[in-house]
Fold this sequence. Notes:
Blueprint: H1 8-14, H2 18-29, E1 44-46, E2 51-54, E3 60-62, H3 76-88, H4 95-102, H5 107-119, E4 132-140, E5 156-165, E6 168-177, H6 182-192, E7 198-202, E8 216-220, H7 229-232, H8 234-251, H9 260-272, H10 279-290, H11 298-302
Helix pairs in contact: 3-10, 4-5
Amino acid sequence: MREYPRSLAEFEAMFSTEEACRAYLVQLRWPSGFQCARCGSSKAWHTARGILSCAGCGKQSYLTAGTILQGTHQTLRQWFRAVWWVTSQKSGTSALGLKRILGFGSYRTAWLMLHKLRRAMVRPGRDRLSGRVEVDEAYVGGAHPGKRGRGAAGKSLVLVAAEAKGRGIGRIRLARVPDGSAKHLEAFVKDSVESGSLVHTDGNPSYSGLKSLGYRHRVTLMEEAAGRESRMLPWVHRVVSLLKRWLLGIHQGAVSHEHLDYYLDEFTFRFNRQTSRYRGKLFFRLLQQAMVLEPTLYRAMVRHARGPSAKHHNI
């Protein structure tokens, strides 16, 4: 099997049928070959409904069970088209854009599909940042301008970590936190940055315990850098600027606090893979991660959705 399509023409040729999509997902879910969870047999019969029936004991394994595609009412071809569209758009796409491209009758269907895919954009067990890493906080969102400084009203506090790679930015990490206490800031650094790395922050006292956690800590007092703040921590300031521009440009700023985490995951996924030569590789990686990520309960996905109730809606 070719690992991933290099162009739209290849994509259409590789995934023209449901059978082709199922075969691709089987190899993603069992890269070393199918193995029955009950008897260990490597032989199974494939049914038209996407079920693998073990030749040894008869146990049935549902291809999408335990993944974000579990219980979907959409065809696999629709899912594949959605993944291709999401990953082939360099700057991202909105639910309205996906609805138009795939011809969904419901905006909510496209919205839920996008949110499921955004959850799959974070790879479990991903490597932490290393080397020299800048860390800072920023306030994002809010329907009305909040007061300036730490504690801006009506906005979400987002922590940003950015690797310094020569004259550019390496990988990044983003996370929304409830407040700027040492508890949350230190937890973010521990989760995002390898121990022993040089962590560069401003003079926020909430970072004062980083040395005791095994990090080299460089502090720049912003009070002494008045008017030059963006030069003191240039990479995190650049990331924050790009994030805000992206949220405003692609999503018109219409991102609720409750769902901001999904958008931060998407921005991180895109930023860290912006130099990828083939967009098809992103398609492959996103589908690969979708097949190992546990499903999200439907009610949790729509709990804070805007618009009409989605009580009886599913995808």
